[in-house]
Design a protein that fits this description.
The structure is a homodimer. Chain A is α/β, with parallel strands linked by helices. Helix content of chain A is 25%, strand content 28%. In chain A, helix 11 runs antiparallel to helix 12.
């Protein structure tokens, strides 16, 4: 079929594939809700109005009809599953399009990782667009699996599914006119440039925006968001698993400014996606918080389509793709039917379309360490150590100074004070680099937890009470080519294989979620009070977020932006 | 200077070129008005906020500051002057950017004509973007100077100043899947596709929109505009010299839908531009009609920038071009200062910047007729003739049947009944084609008027009481290589040379306006009661607008869409 067939159906000169009759259309373009039929042919909406005949007709009996939702910024890797499984999780929630930054896999596998995500996108049920990762690696104080300069990103420029340059996290670099950052911005100047500038304000923020950045998803307060919106940044309000900004930012939203606001999830774990949803969840929260439903739906669909210049998405009108939600109720925004390209893919919160056959894309192994040569011992140089202090529900940390527990000349974990040994093992290049330090707050009384999910370099992080448990966990991960593990002495208690770049499982998301629940239960058995110690651990190596972090090259004082010694 | 310098100024690490202090910013992004300083460096706005130092500083003392205006759809040729002179007319009114369809010159000179407009744009003070003309010629019932198929337009696709495909006037062709139209749409599918579909509705309109069309500027009533807006067309409300749609469409505009509405002028003659203005006039009328000023300004700036994906235009924020208006009053929207790229170009309604040197672009002569072989005699075939009946202030006509006045076997003008001879002389290819007919309403008691402005083919139109006067006027136009002329017997009473494609004068717009006023005065002397008989004549050959029109191939019954005989 072609445009010629679609126009014939639009003219009512030929029957259409499908007619959704008697729905109440949420028209995000005109800002109205009214009754009309929706005429679908050859994957597209071809007409709105009465007097059409269809091969199939569905009577919606006054139910609401809204456009498929768009997640403006999401790292699919955080779902711990591959894109086709991520699609199975979000489609029943009405998310039909995502704009993803394949930043995690790009840090591990570079362009090959981005190509994997693009290939996965091409054959899936979810409309997946990619932003080219802009900060690989994040800094020079780590060893990542790849390094991408402007010239490396150039081949992506004209890729039909690449919309622009992903979050420019090196925000001081951008504002200070770092040559490499400006090269990337110049390359993508006619595409979309996404931002990431937590707490930036004033003159430095002006410079960041003046460089061409167009969006920001790191706002946590209304004054911060308003300053950024006024400067022209589209505000992506984010509601991730850990970073929950929606309720604090609801007072930002007005009828006058909401066209400059979109919704995104950034990072959501499997249980969160399955149990609570995605953009649909945000729309429910927004409406419950007093936002007009049409405005809330716009922020979850149309506004993102406009921001990313996706002209066939985000609204229900002739010529757009037939990505359609049917909803019994608008306040409690839960899609009863989800159509993608005119095909019913989910109903009553469950997939009804089979997962399409994916093209097999064999990635190389990404865990490259010598597990039997690991040495986690720390020779004591003084009685006083820097300790990374975790803070509940935050990814920032405290920079603590604590007395060292010294045994036989070695600094060791101190379970009485909940100060545990923390190692970051370089896993991409077998360099032998191991960053060593201590961390407070994980609460393990025995054993060790480890994982190859460690933003953004994704080296192998391990936290433990004793070196033997740590080595056991690391060896288990090495043996399975990446993933999460928990060990006690020589015994591996649980494991979650993440064979795709050490970041993603190949299992269905429900199975991955079950394994993840088991991992958390095992950590609780060993004494950790955290609701999710693996996710907390995964941010303890991210040296672009304050205050004290650990990479494979050592402890980073983020405020000084330099490596510092463990001992004072 | 470069981005590096701009970022230094944005960070306040170096003084900026210019600071506009103490203005009240109309922030079209956030929908607010508040006090702030505006920091300009190297043609761009680099910062909003306090604490900056400038090489030059201007104290605005609380005056309003708004973005430079954007005309979403204008045929510059209708101003009868070249783009640099058009720029001189609109810049003092605050219009800093126009999106133009060089449709008139393209019908005369094809790609060469479009290149002329693009070249003119490149070196001017006005930001001029071009839409590639989509309907050259309009139909096969005329002889135009050029024919442009999709393959001819392909070289324009990646031109940095070409934004998309201009008004798709062959709207039945688009809806009926005409292959040539679909080829052009497919070529420009990732660019912007402008529409033109007067009175289209229902299934045919759905098909037109489903083809990918994105805008419409032909709406005259609220129900028509609302139907089109709901289907996803951006509504360009038009206020031309003859087509005045703004006041009738003001009730369309709501806070909920105004993001899908832009302002445009389409066609304005010199006197209108000079005396009344352009988009600024529309903003004044809208505000006087009760529209919120920020919404009105958005429709005249930001909304058009978003529609055309012009991300550095239409708003005042870091990274945008410094196209800035200073206004003492918001209700009576009259720019006191107009900055384009940070340069003060107009003040108090007059240009202060000199017209830049234009690149000389020699177009070939476009009037190619044998003036001494013209024969306007009409052998009478019956006593009853079809007559084109003009209607005041409209471009549609009546299809009249009148008794013929016959002298010596020839049908001639009948001044008692105000039925005058009308000839359309093919002027592009010396084909010898002359369409002959009669027209009612011009009121000449003596002489003839003639001109090479005759939409859209722009052949040479001439209306007269006697053949000698008609030949004198045609010969005068031929001698000056295109333009308007008025003659009485052997005497040329007035002339307005339009050497650029027979459409545009090379004089300053004030001089062209003076000549045009003289032309109208001369027509009044000869008895015409019309306020502008030349403009009315220019639409009497446009065979895509009902009901009866005359091309060089003969009379066209537009409702039947076919050529018809003069005699019944």
């Amino acid at each position: 079929m072609s445009i010629v067939d679609r126009l014939a159906a639009a003219r009512a000169d030929a029957p259409a594939d499908l007619i959704l009759r008697n729905g109440r259309l949420v028209n995000v373009i005109s800002g109205e809700i009214y009754r009309t039929d929706i005429v679908v042919h050859d994957r597209h909406i071809v007409a709105l109005g009465e007097g059409y005949q269809g091969e199939r007709e569905v009577d919606l009996a006054g139910k609401y009809v809204a456009p498929g939702l768009i997640d403006a910024h999401v790292h699919i890797e955080s779902s711990l599953v591959t894109p086709p499984e991520f699609a199975r999780a979000v489609l029943p929630h009405g998310v039909t399009t995502v704009v993803t930054d394949p930043h995690e896999i790009a840090n591990v596998l570079g362009l090959e990782g981005m190509r994997y995500m693009l290939e996965s996108a091409k054959h899936g049920l979810l409309n997946m667009f990619v932003m080219a990762s802009s900060c690989v690696p994040a800094t020079t104080m780590e060893t990542s699996g790849a390094r991408l300069e402007a010239e490396d990103l150039a081949p992506l420029l004209d890729h039909p599914w690449v919309l622009g340059l992903a979050e420019l996290m090196n925000y001081p670099g951008v504002a200070l006119a770092d040559e490499g950052m400006l090269d990337k911005i110049a390359l993508f100047e006619n595409k979309v440039l996404d931002g990431h500038a937590p707490d930036m304000s004033g003159a430095m923020l002006n410079a960041y925006v003046a460089a061409g950045v167009e969006s920001e998803h790191e706002c946590t307060t209304v004054p911060e968001a308003l300053e950024k919106l006024r400067l022209g940044l589209t505000i992506f309000i984010r509601e991730g698993t850990t970073t929950r900004n929606l309720e604090p930012l609801l007072p930002l939203i007005t009828a006058e400014n909401h066209s400059a606001i979109c919704f995104c999830t950034d990072d959501r774990i499997p249980a969160d996606l399955i149990d609570h949803g995605s953009i649909d969840y945000m729309i429910r929260v927004a409406i419950a918080g007093g936002i007009d439903p049409v405005m809330a739906i716009r922020m979850g669909s149309y506004n993102s389509a406009r921001h990313f210049r996706l002209k066939k998405y985000g609204a229900l009108a002739p010529g757009k793709y037939a990505d359609i939600l049917v909803l019994p109720d608008l306040e409690d925004f839960r899609p009863e039917q989800v159509y993608r390209g005119g095909q019913l893919v989910a109903r009553d919160g469950a997939m009804v379309a089979a997962r399409p056959e994916s093209r097999r894309f064999d990635l190389r192994s990404t865990v490259n360490i010598a597990a039997d040569e690991l040495d986690f011992s720390i020779a004591a140089k003084s009685g006083s150590i820097r300790v990374i202090g975790t803070i509940k529900d935050q990814v920032v940390t405290e920079h603590l100074v604590e007395p060292a527990k010294i045994v036989a000349g070695l600094a060791v974990s101190n379970i009485e004070r909940d100060i545990l040994k923390f190692a970051m093992v370089e896993r991409h290049r077998a360099s032998g680099h191991i960053g060593l330090g201590f961390v407070k707050g994980f609460g393990l009384r025995r054993g060790a937890i480890a994982g190859t999910v460690a933003h953004d370099h994704h080296n192998l992080a391990v936290i433990g009470v004793d070196d033997e448990s740590m080595k056991t966990a690391v060896a288990a991960i090495s043996a399975m080519g990446g993933g999460l593990a928990i060990a006690d002495g020589e015994v591996v208690l649980a494991r979650l294989p993440l064979p795709v770049a050490g970041l993603m499982s190949e299992l269905p998301i429900e199975a991955a979620r079950g394994q993840y629940d088991d991992m958390i239960a095992a950590a609780r058995e060993l004494g950790s009070p955290m609701s999710d110690p693996y996710m907390v651990m995964s941010f303890m190596g991210l040296e672009v977020i304050p205050k004290l972090k650990l990479t494979d090259l050592g402890l980073v004082d983020v405020e000084q932006f330099q490596l510092v010694d463990l001992f004072l």
